[in-house]
Structure formats: C-alpha cells, structure tokens
C-alpha cells in the first residue's frame, strides 16, 4: 500500500460556509495512514455539479484512491452519485438490494419512507455497494480506470462505521499491504515554538524516517513523530527511539502525548498524590474551574471554587482585608496571594490557585488592560505569585490567563516530586 496516492474530498456547501467543520477529512487521513496509505490531497467542494465534476476529474488525474464524503442524501442538492457516474463514464441504476435495505431501515425506525429516499438506491452500474446500517444512504466503491473512488455519507457516525467495518477490509484485500504509517504527538508547555525547534534542530536536520514536525497550538507547542514501517511493531520501535532522543534534549518541557491535554496532566498529578485543589477566580470568571472539571475523574482532586469578581465578593466570600484591598488594589500581587491562600484554607484543599487582572474595556487601579496576576498557595513557606502582560483583547486575555494558570500549576506540582 505504500505506493498508493490517496485523496479525500468533502462534499457540501455547508463546509465551505463554515457552518460545520470538516472533521471527516482529519479522521480519514489518520485511518488511512494506519493502513500504510499516504494522503496527498484534501479537497472541499460545494453542491455544484460543474465544480464537483472538476474536483473529481482532478482527483482522478492524480490519485489512485479517492474517498468522497457527503452528497448522498435524498434531496435535490445531493448530487455526488450523478457527478461520480459522469466522471466514471457510467450511469445510475436502481439497486434493488439497496432499496430493500433503505425500506428496512425506515421499518426499524418506525418512520414513513418518502418517495425521494428511493433516489438513494440509485447507484452506479457495476459499483460495489457499501451497506449503511446506521442510516439510509449506502456507499459505493467505483473503479474508474486506474482510480478507485469510494463514496460515503457525510454524517460522521455513519461514515466511520462503514469505513471501519467495510472499507478497511476492502482496502486490505484490494491492495498489497506492505507498510504502516504511525504518528505520535509529544506535547510541550513553557517553551516557545522557535525555541523548541532550535533545541531539536539536530534531530530535524537529520530526519529521514521517522520524521519530526513542530506544531503550534493555543499557548503550547508539539512535535509530531511519524514513522513508516513494514508493520506496527517496527513503527512503534522507531517512534520510541526518536522520542527518547527528544526527551534527552527537551524532556523538562514535556507534559503529555497524543490527545492528552494540560488540564488532564494537572488532574493526574493531583490525583496520583491524593492532593486537592481549590480555585479563586476574578478575571477568569470560572474558566479555569471549567477546565479542571471537564476532566473525567476531577472530583477526586477538585474541591470547589469561588468566583469573586467584585471587591465586595473578595471581602465577604474570601475575607480579604478591605483596607489592604483598597490600598493594594484588586489587581495586585497581594490580592492574588490572599485569594489563593484564603480559598485554600476555607475549602480545606492542599493547594489554592487564584486569578485577578484587567480584561478591559478600561484599566483598573492604574493597571493596564492585559495585566494579570496568578498565585499558587500551599503554605506560608510554599507559594508563588506571577504577573503577566497579555495583548489587549478581552477574550484572549482570559483564555491565556487560564492556560498560563494550568502551566504554572503543572510545573509547581511537578517540581514537588
């Protein structure tokens, strides 16, 4: 399979308008890579016959395998069957087996079948039918000269089921499988993309197989290791060797791998140590707490939070001295530390973390918009307070403060190993 050029085409004007995300393409590329098939191109085309024809003709001219998702519904704008038949120089015919399956679906669902659903049983002559047990639209495998087209529904649940149960076995039987492509994502926090790339430059410059690709996301960076091998075990060994080389250079900044997120790593550290966290939020208004409780099992480590947005809330709920609060200001090192200390002690947690700052639209106590203080408190001898100046965009300030709080807490806990 390693010589196959694959292409994924998403069909639907809603994709072009941004009304829904094209998650199918990402998912399919990952699954094809696991089968040793390299995806060279992605296309998205709307429900327009001329443009769809051009897209499919282009794919036919350059790809051995083309996966199409969408455009198999019963309405007038579902034209994938018609256009694909034209590109394959074939025609549609009513497939009785497919029609019986559609009728059976409506019977199971206790719904009345509309006449336009019959259209979904009109398939390309000679096509291999892919049954759809989760919906009404069957898929098709169409061989058009040197290109194999596989047409699947756009509904992710239906598409994924059909691909795993029917398409993967077909690909394994139709093509000689002599390679797999595996990837592993190494996630970093506390280091910038340019600094990370410079630290691992020797590995990137020498890369052949596996390859190393830096990726930047919101507030953090990652390295994707991709290996191509004759089998999964060999690819795993290749990735493990490269991962160890990366760890030797920048291991202090690694917090997780693959889909693990920073909030998960924080909760894992707390849970493993049987320690707990309490949160006091002003600037972030509950966003940090939401990050923590979104992790399954967070109840083992998270006690609760106080959103003390106003000065009155800070004095009444957290018992911060009103005179000192007025003197030092709500956005200050003193207030951040007191918030973290008081919420920790009042809720009986191992640690307290707090957020206070200026998100705008106006400055507060002569503090510029974007000024943020974050404090982590364990005891009178063990605490830290950090100040930051973020760009002046309200939502960005709150998001970056939340992310920075996770980073700060993660390293605070990690350094107590």
From TrEMBL:
Q: Which Pfam families match?
A: CinA, CinA_KH, MoCF_biosynth
Q: Which Gene3D superfamilies match?
A: 3.30.70.2860, CinA-like (3.90.950.20), MoaB/Mog-like domain (3.40.980.10)
Q: Which residues does the UniProt record annotate as the domain MoaB/Mog?
A: 7-174
Q: Which CDD domains match?
A: cinA
Q: Which InterPro entries does the entry link to? A: CinA, CinA-like_C, CinA_C, CinA_KH, Competence-induced_CinA, MoaB/Mog-like_dom_sf, MoaB/Mog_dom
Q: Which SUPFAM superfamilies match?
A: CinA-like, Molybdenum cofactor biosynthesis proteins
The organism's superkingdom is given as Bacteria
Q: Name the family.
A: Belongs to the CinA family.
Entry protein name: Putative competence-damage inducible protein
Organism listed in the record:
Pelagirhabdus alkalitolerans
Please name the gene that encodes this protein.
cinA
